[in-house]
Amino acid sequence: MNTLQRYLLKRVFVSLVAGTFVLGFILFLGNTLKQILELVISGVINASLLGQMLLYLIPFVIMYAVPIAMLTAVLLVFGSFSADNELTAARTSGISLISLVWPVLLLGLLVSILNILIVTDYGPKVRAQYKELLAQSRTRLAESLLPERRFITQLPGLIIYIGKSERGPNKGHVALLHQRPNKHLRQTSCSRRFIHSY
Hints:
By secondary structure, this protein is an alpha+beta fold.
C-alpha cells in the first residue's frame, strides 16, 4: 500500500468514525427521548437499568448509522480529492483509479460484513431484550399510576377503585364509579379482575 492509498484510507476511516458518532448520537437521542425519557421522569427505572437499556440500543443504532456514515465518508473524501484536482494529478502520474480505491473498497467490505452480522444475528437478540426491559418498565409505570386499595379521583366525574393485587400483572377487583352533579355516586362497571399488559 503506497502513501496515497494510506492517505485516502485514513481520511475515509476518520470520516467514517466521526459520521458514525454523529449519526449514532442523533438516532440514539431520538430513541431515548421517544421511549425511555417518560420512564426516567416517572422514576420507574433506576440508573443501572437505564444504562442496560442504553447499551441494548447501541447495536440497533449502529446498524443504521454505519452504512450512512460510510456513504457520507466516501462522498466527502473523494469529492474533496476530486475538487482539489488531486485525482487529476494522480491519474496524470499514471496511478489508476482502481489502485487508488481498493483499500477503501476493502474497508467497505469489512464494514458490510460487520453490519450483516449485527443485522442478522446480534441486533435482533439485543433488540428483543431491550423491548422486554421496556415492557417490564412500562408495566411498573402502569402499576405506579394505578395504586392498589386507593380511590383515584383525578379524572373529573369519575372515581376509580382498584383492589389488592393477586399475582403477576393481575390487579384485584376494579370498580368504576360515576359521580353525578348532585354528588351521588353510581357504579357504572365492576370487574373481579383487571389485567394490564403492553
